[in-house]
Amino acid sequence: MADVTDAFERAGDAVGEAGAPGGARVLGGDDRGQLMLVAALAIAVLLVGLALTLNTAIYTENLATRTTDTNLDGAVTHGGAVEDGAGALLDETNREGGTYGELNDSFGEAFGNWSDAAATLAAVRGAATDASHVDRVRGTRISQTDAARNFTDRNETTDWTLASDVGVRGVRFNVSRDSLATSSGSAFELVVDDGTDAVETEIYQNTTQGRVFVAVEDAGGTRTTCSVAADAGDYVTVDLADGRLNGTACDPLDAVHTDLDGAATVSYRNAGAAEGSYELYVDETNATVFDATKYASAGSGSSPVAQEALYAVTVSYVYESGETYVYRELRVAPGEIA
Q: What is the pTM of this model?
């Protein structure tokens, strides 16, 4: 940077008007203007230097945040595969049933086999991988497999609460089209209420149009719908976990994920106005959730059933390729709502 010291000294030596008391010299108007000009130039030089310094820092930081290591893409892809694989195995294990200990062992074994298969595929691409089961959260699976039964509780109560103050995930319905009410006012309805906000989901048919509708009233009171045509089959699937109606995206269902926060109460209304099968998972143990007036025991042949299940699992994975090494732990709870 330019040295402006000499410029200030020269300005100080400039000849001003004589005659100041004690021989002191007083700057004249031209001299003061010269001093101001020199000062302005000095400030300009300082600002230019500061700007160059800041630009250099920004450029350096920008370069530092860039990467051309495509191995990271492989690590990200593998992490997604681990999460999806663990989620699918988790629900498959739960549907097989068993005690918490048996479920934990079954999932660990199945996930270990999945990890071995994934490692073989990764090796073909020049990567080394490994995945392990770290921990689990005990929960309850609430389900009905009798497709000819309506959605009432064990005592055929039409308006009932499945579980209170719980985390909820994996809500899925497979509903008989012909069993559905023909108007929204009397339709089967799922209500998920976190104590502050509630999301209400109705399922009904319009016989004139031949369509099945899903209507969702979000926490703000806005009601939106999506529908499926008459030629879609005798049964209609509603997957709140993935936000899909008969396998197609149904945007209104996203409200159960975006509008609720924390533990919730899950209830059915007008449960006699829908027949079919369903399942969902809550994060309380079966000893807490099970109520003999509402549920039958697993293996009893009656519906609906509340049984032991793993609500969530924690898994870890390692991905190594070239100079890239990634280790992560993932909490897996597919289709979690609250």
A: 0.78
